[in-house]
Design goal:
4-stranded antiparallel sheet, rod-shaped, 4 helices, alpha+beta
């Protein structure tokens, strides 16, 4: 191959060397430089999107904290009612009146509730309503499944606020 290259005229050798060098530079650009620069641009765009998302999440977290604080302050109805009356009233209006066996205060901020043969679906809806609309949380619970499908006995302790 060296003999063949040396047999070429000077202009032909220069042209082959220049073309080979140009081809090598193009291969390096297309194979290495361009993919790297595209990846850097993609990562910069992704970083900008993630930064914007982080800023939104931080503001949403502040809003959630504020809403949780409000929910805790509205656990007792503004009408002056107690946690005891709120739990009793919402249970009866939530189709659990027949299953409600006992509602008993436990200090200023707690109420104990006993339900027998309650519909599990109605019970879950009632608990969700107490949590989301009134800020009342379940501190402890004990459920016992009954032979009748969808029916449970339950003992619950509710707290006002957090």
């Amino acid at each position: 191959m060296k003999d063949w290259f040396m047999a070429l005229e000077t202009n032909e050798r220069r042209m082959l060397l220049g073309g080979g060098t140009l081809l090598l530079v193009m291969l390096l650009y297309v194979g290495i430089w361009e993919p790297l620069s595209n990846k850097v641009a993609t990562l910069r765009a992704s970083t900008a999107e993630q930064t914007a998302l982080l800023a939104w999440m931080r503001s949403a977290a502040q809003e959630v904290k504020q809403l949780r604080g409000r929910a805790g302050s509205t656990a007792i109805p503004a009408s002056g009612g107690s946690l005891l009356s709120l739990v009793d009233r919402t249970a009866r209006s939530g189709r659990l009146g027949g299953a409600l066996k006992r509602v008993q205060p436990d200090g200023d901020q707690k109420v104990r509730v006993w339900l027998e043969a309650a519909s599990f679906d109605d019970l879950v809806r009632w608990l969700a309503t107490l949590e989301t609309r009134h800020g009342v949380h379940v501190e402890s619970s004990v459920f016992q499944a009954l032979e009748a499908p969808g029916k449970v006995d339950a003992r619950l302790v509710f707290t006002a606020g957090g």
